[in-house]
Design brief:
Bound molecules: uridine-diphosphate-N-acetylgalactosamine, manganese (II) ion
Strand order of the largest sheet: 1-9-7-8-5-2-3-4
Helix content: 25-40%
Order of helices and strands: HHEHEHEEHEEEEHHEEEH
Number of domains: 1
Structural class: alpha/beta
Main location: membrane
Family: Belongs to the glycosyltransferase 6 family.
Distance between the termini: 84 Å
Strand content: 5-15%
CATH topology: Spore Coat Polysaccharide Biosynthesis Protein SpsA, Chain A
CATH class: Alpha Beta
Organism: Coilia grayii (Gray's grenadier anchovy)
Membrane topology: Single-pass type II membrane protein
Cofactor: Mn(2+)
Shape: globular
Length: 352
């Protein structure tokens, strides 16, 4: 009996010691390590640039002695009628401020790929053939281009003969019955496409509205780490007139005493890394608004405007890069219209 008691006490003690040791040391038997790797594969670490193809400024090399270009004159502004630099020293790109030959000599040897994300959902699918044809004439000519077409009708994507180094990639997107939902969900779908493939396939990425047409040169001068575009209806107005979200309940809220410029949701871009962080952040803000039953006045464009106020673009595209045909003939300071939004029949195109 005594022996049995001793045996039971001994076993109990042993069990307590073993469980205690397991609790304190927490050996992983390889399981938690696998879990960590699995999470990392799905959710990229925001700060890890090695996940992305990146071009660093010191990789750009100008070939001395091959071109004869006019000297940039330090005593004369290239444009005196418009602002060409922000007060955080980002260039604002206008015709006359850059030399295409110089830019191409610097960027072309790097064999970069530019991703264009275009959403063509519901009737907007009809807008694709003319848009892609115009892009083949003017968008990033001389560079590799991947058009990522997000659509609910993959078999209606036009099969066009594209220039060399240029391709169309069709990605599924759900049919929503509100155009606002289609517009704002772009953040989530661009974020996912970057995770799934764009980060392996491109160096720069742009979101481009599908109700647009290219009309003139739109090239490597538009590339930058984080690129925003001035909205053609607001660039000449004061910040209290910007159509920012004014309700503090929304995560896109910008008070009317704040604001640098009003940026358009139809065109933004940058390095894949920077656009990944932008889309991921805005997707989170949109989700919080949704949980709180609030939708910002201009959907993701409102959130984009707060984002660009906090994380200033390193390059700003002038309204040459998204002119609106509804504004009629461009004023004198718009010397070139590069991309223009078409005048569309909203009733015929949109689901609501
Ligand atoms: C002049 C003006 O007021 N423009 C605003 C309006 O843009 P837009 O009138 O430019 O919005 P939009 O109809 O172009 O929608 C945005 C984009 O979503 C896609 N799409 C939309 C609907 C659809 O049925 N199928 C489809 O594919 C398509 O890529 C389209 O270009 O709204 C935007 C986003 O909310 C911005 O606030 C714009 O500043
Ligand atoms: Mn549009």
């Amino acid at each position: 009996m005594d022996n049995l008691k001793r045996f039971l006490v001994f076993t109990l003690l042993l069990a307590v010691i073993v469980i205690g040791a397991l609790y304190i040391l927490q050996p992983d038997f390889g399981i938690s390590q696998m879990k960590v790797l699995a999470t990392e594969a799905v959710c990229l670490k925001d700060s890890d640039s090695s996940m992305f193809k990146t071009i660093k400024h010191d990789q750009l090399k100008y070939p001395v002695g091959q071109l004869h270009v006019p000297q940039p004159w330090a005593m004369k502004q290239s444009r005196s009628d418009v602002l060409t630099v922000t007060h955080w020293l980002a260039p604002i790109v206008w015709e006359g401020t850059f030399n295409t030959q110089v830019i191409n000599r610097m960027y072309q040897p790097l064999n970069i790929t530019v991703a264009a994300c275009i959403f063509a959902v519901g009737n907007y699918i009809r807008l694709l053939p003319p848009l892609l044809q115009s892009a083949e004439k003017h968008f990033m000519i001389g560079y590799r281009v991947n058009y990522y077409i997000f659509t609910d009708q993959p078999n209606k994507v036009p099969r066009l003969a594209l220039g060399s180094g240029r391709s169309i990639i069709v990605l599924p997107f759900p049919s929503f019955n509100r155009w606002q939902e289609i517009s704002l969900r772009r953040m989530e779908f661009i974020r996912k496409a970057i995770e799934d493939r764009i980060r392996h396939e491109a160096h720069y990425v742009f979101n481009i509205d599908s109700d647009t047409l290219f009309e003139n040169h739109f090239g490597a001068e538009a590339l930058g780490e984080l690129v925003g575009s001035l909205h053609p209806w607001y660039y000449y107005l004061t910040r209290n007139q910007f159509t920012n979200e004014r309700r503090p309940a929304s995560r896109a809220h910008v008070p009317d005493t704040e604001g640098d410029f009003y940026y358009i949701g139809a065109l933004y871009g940058g390095s894949v890394d920077a656009v990944y962080r932008l889309t991921k952040t805005i997707e989170q803000q949109l989700n919080i608004d949704k949980q709180n039953n609030i939708e910002a006045v201009w959907q993701e464009e409102s959130h984009l405007n707060l984002y660009f106020l906090e994380y200033k673009p390193t390059k700003v595209l002038s309204p040459e890069y998204v002119w609106d045909k509804l504004r009629g003939n461009p004023p004198e300071h718009i010397r070139v219209v590069r991309l223009a939004t078409i005048i569309k029949d909203k009733k015929a195109l949109r689901p609501n």
